[in-house]
Amino acid sequence: MVKTEDYIYVFEFKLDGSAEEALAQIERQGYLQPYFSDGRKLLAVGANFSKAERNLDRFLCKTL
User: Fold this and answer.
1) Domain range for 55
2) pTM as predicted
3) How many CB atoms lie within 10 A of CB 44?
4) Does position 60 have pLDDT exceeding 90, yes or no?
């Protein structure tokens, strides 16, 4: 989680999974729910790392 003056970012990372799975986990587990009344913009970031490529494979960002 990263908090700035205007935004709250929640990150979920997967290894050889998918960015979609990571975003779904953020929503399913309610990681952002405690911050809905905060007033800052909320962003969920799902990222997947490839073991074979040894790098970031894909990431998705969703505003809530």
Assistant:
1) 2-63
2) 0.90
3) 22
4) yes
11's tokens: 């990150």
What is the residue whose two structure tokens read 């960015």? 19
pLDDT digits (tens, 9 = 90+) for 31-48: 999 999 999 999 999 999
> What tokens appear for 19 in the block?
């960015």
Domain count, the chain: 1
Q: Does residue 63 contact residue 23 with C-beta atoms inside 8 Å?
A: no
- Exposed/middle/buried for residue 23 (C-beta within 10 Å: 0-12, 13-18, 19+): buried
CA gap 48, 33 in Å, rounded: 23
Q: Can you give the pLDDT at residue 13?
A: 98
